[in-house]
Predict the 3D structure of the following.
Amino acid sequence: MKIFGVDFTSAPCRRKPITVASAVFMKDLLRVEAIERHETFADFEQFLARPGPWIGGFDFPFGLPAELCRDLGWPLEWKALVSHCSGLTRQQLRCALDAYRNSRPAGSKYAHRATDLRLRDDLERAVVGDGAADLLDAVICATQAAWAALRPRYGLPAGAFGAEGWIVSAGTSS
């Protein structure tokens, strides 16, 4: 099966492209075959139009928090929400989200998804403010370690050579 891992950016360019790891997954082995750099949305859209089947892992969710959708009276079903949001210009969407945040009390400006990893306000500010994303990487590693701690053999596949070191993550087979 074809697998793509996508590091997305909202403003792709030569310096910060949308980066895609292109891989094949067969018989419990993921083989990364190429790393692609998409410097424009048009180029990325061509990538998305590739024939399937394929599965993509993206570094951002493709929806909005249910709380935000309910509060704004927007559709709660994904396809209808996408249709609604695509009918707005970028400026209209930004204005709606800005107005929503401005209507909320300090400390609760952003609606969160049920699956969001909640941090104390000071830690959240530090993680969000770290341009190198090292703090975010550390939080993600802690999340992966917590997931692994609940699995037999810490989520390592049977037959794994323990001295090599492994990266485990939610969704691997047990």
Summary: Residues 119 and 125 are 9 Å apart (CA to CA). The chain has three domains: 2-58, 66-115, 117-155. The chain is about 35% helix and 15% strand. Residues 134-149 form the longest helix (16 residues).
